[in-house]
Amino acid sequence: MKRLILTVSCFILFQFLIAIPDSVQASEPKREIFVNVYTRKLSLIEEGRVIKTYPIAPGTPETPTPVGDWEVVEKSRNWGGGFGTRWIGLNVPWGTYGIHGTNRPHLIGQRVSHGCIRMRNRDVEEFYPFVQLGMQVHILGHPLVSSPYELPNRLVRGHRGSDVYIIQNRLRAAGFYHGPVNGLFGSATEEAIIQFQKANRLPVSKQIGMEEYRLLGLEE
After folding, report:
1. Under 8 Å between Cβ of 45 and 54
2. Cβ neighbours of residue 128 under 8 Å, at least 6 residues apart?
3. Active-site entry in 10, 114, 116, 178
4. 201 burial class (0-12, 13-18, 19+ CB within 10 angstroms)?
5. Residue 100 catalytic?
6. Model confidence over 124-160: pLDDT tens digits?
7. Annotated catalytic, 106?
8. Predicted TM-score (pTM) of this structure
């Protein structure tokens, strides 16, 4: 009888365990991606610990990598050509940006991309299985310049990027901008700049220059 009771108890326990959702049985460790455009390194972080660091090729000063906090929205294999063997897309609102391989591995470590983050194919293939949709990607750097020794760009209608994104945020906080904060310098952003310049008795240039950066608290 004791043996039967034990057997039944084990069966009930087994049935209970297999009914538990996977998320409860073995939750995935929290992983994040950190990209440093200054050091040109990408790090995979798991539960606060650096698991692996890889060299990368970020964007040029003219086509910078988007600084900010994004998330993975796409994963694909074998894009080929300049995109190498893997593609990891990010939710940057002003364009198509991602982490991908390359057919020019000798350029890794240099600022040569159009804003994407290039990795050696063997590195992105090793890294790819650890990446999940929705994973946070933190791109570290200055939103206005690609290196500490540069001056911010003069922004005009048609520009796009992290610098436009932060300008829209500041103009919105000051009550001048009411359009989408998307990093795209369009007519709504231009109108907000005109009103900001008038309110601050600046020449109405419809552009963002050093004085506008200073008054928006972005340059000392």
Report:
1. no
2. 75, 77, 86, 88
3. 116
4. exposed
5. yes
6. 999 999 999 999 999 999 888 776 677 888 999 999 9
7. no
8. 0.80
